[in-house]
Amino acid sequence: MEDIKIIKDPAVAKLLADNTRRRILRILTMGEFSAYELAKMLDKNTAAVEYHLKLLERGGLVKATRTEVKGNLVKRYYTSTAKRFIVSYSLAEAQAPESEEVSKVFERLIEGALKGFEAFGITLRGERRERLKGLIKDFLRIRQTTLEAVLSKKVSPLPQERGIILFLEFLVMTLAYRNPEFRRILEEGSKAVPLEV
What we know:
Blueprint: E1 2-7, H1 10-15, H2 19-28, E2 33-34, H3 35-42, H4 46-58, E3 62-70, E4 73-80, E5 82-87, H5 90-93, H6 99-115, H7 126-152, H8 164-176, H9 180-192
Parallel strand pairs: 1-5
Antiparallel strand pairs: 2-4, 3-4
Helix pairs in contact: 3-4, 6-7, 7-8, 7-9
């Protein structure tokens, strides 16, 4: 199982737009399970889970690990092909029709980030909202493309340590900071965010 897989195929990325498939993938990163076991965990019928597994397997996101045969009953077990999946930001900017769904996912991510301000008692409207939305979108673009570049340099699997996500975030932010546009985004963002700490 890979530690991180970057998805660059828009058709595969579109598979992740479905909540049930995302839930199946999360479970399969923890071990191998049959369609029946997954159906029980997800409170779905087995046929529906088998359908999703077939799509995920065709997309290279899951793989069958073993098959058990008891009488005329065949039970296949599956696992995820990676611990974590990252959709390439380049898909959000592509002109292909399949990329439209990916763009919508990134747009929802940005809108969700904007809603985070409400937790701090900050209501965003009008020009300030649009300005912060643009900054967050640019931040996400540079962060994602830097992360993809960093991961492309990996020569061996990442250690399965608690601090590895912190390490990756530190590495990505440090390298992104070399980009003058990223520094501009941080500078403008620090002025635009109405919060003192």
